[in-house]
Specification:
The structure is a single chain. This protein is an alpha/beta fold and 182 residues long. It has a single domain (6-181), classed as P-loop containing nucleotide triphosphate hydrolases (Rossmann fold, 3-Layer(aba) Sandwich), CATH 3.40.50. 54% of the residues lie in helices and 14% in strands. The chain has a 5-stranded parallel sheet, with helices on both faces. Helix 1 (17-28) crosses helix 8. The two termini are 15 Å apart. The relative contact order is 0.21.
Length: 182
């Protein structure tokens, strides 16, 4: 039996990745890794986190290896918001190959700028400063969109165009798209 699937959820800041990851975790009996949350938990007082900066790949990769190594081969994995940049994507693809896995599908949740702003206004996160938000939006545009394009070339991309919908509506679209691929 092949190893269980690996899903990647990508989208701009406040696109609902974490909400969707939790819903998919329940649906597919998966282990959900919010790499951002793992980093925030380990480096909460780190000045780079307060400024919305990306950490060096080596630090992020170490956190991912530690988390993934605790999961059995038969457990589906969901990466919430990772990889964010091309070097992380390349590393993740290579790392998964060394443990007999691969990215099965990448779900890109598209959300309007108006909805992003509305969601950011509603959520209360200590690292959602105006500077950090602007930085994360810039990282998404400059670095994550090329990752999404690379996964599109690999024919692993599922684009959810109506990410402005309710969590249940978006989740239903994601599940339908995943199930259509299997």
């Amino acid at each position: 039996m092949p190893n269980a699937p690996v899903y990647v959820l990508l989208g701009s800041i406040a696109s609902g990745k974490t909400v969707q990851a939790k819903l998919l975790e329940a649906k597919f009996a998966a282990t959900n890794f919010s790499v951002g949350s793992l980093i925030r938990d380990q480096l909460a007082d780190d000045e780079r986190m307060q400024q919305g900066q990306l950490l060096p790949d080596g630090e992020v990769n170490k956190i991912v290896i530690e988390a993934v190594s605790a999961v059995g081969d038969d457990t589906p994995i969901i990466f919430d918001g990772f990889p964010r940049i091309a070097s992380q994507q390349q590393w993740l693809d290579e790392y998964l190959q060394t443990i007999g896995r691969e990215v099965t599908a990448v779900i890109y949740i598209v959300v309007s700028e108006t909805e992003v702003d509305r969601r950011l206004h509603l959520r209360q996160r200590h690292d959602d400063t105006p500077e950090a938000i602007a930085q994360r939006k810039q990282v998404f545009n400059d670095h994550t969109l090329p990752v999404i394009a690379a996964y599109r070339k690999q024919q692993k991309l599922i684009t959810i165009e109506s990410g402005d919908g309710s969590p249940a509506e978006v989740s239903a679209q994601i599940i339908q798209a995943i199930e259509a691929r299997t």
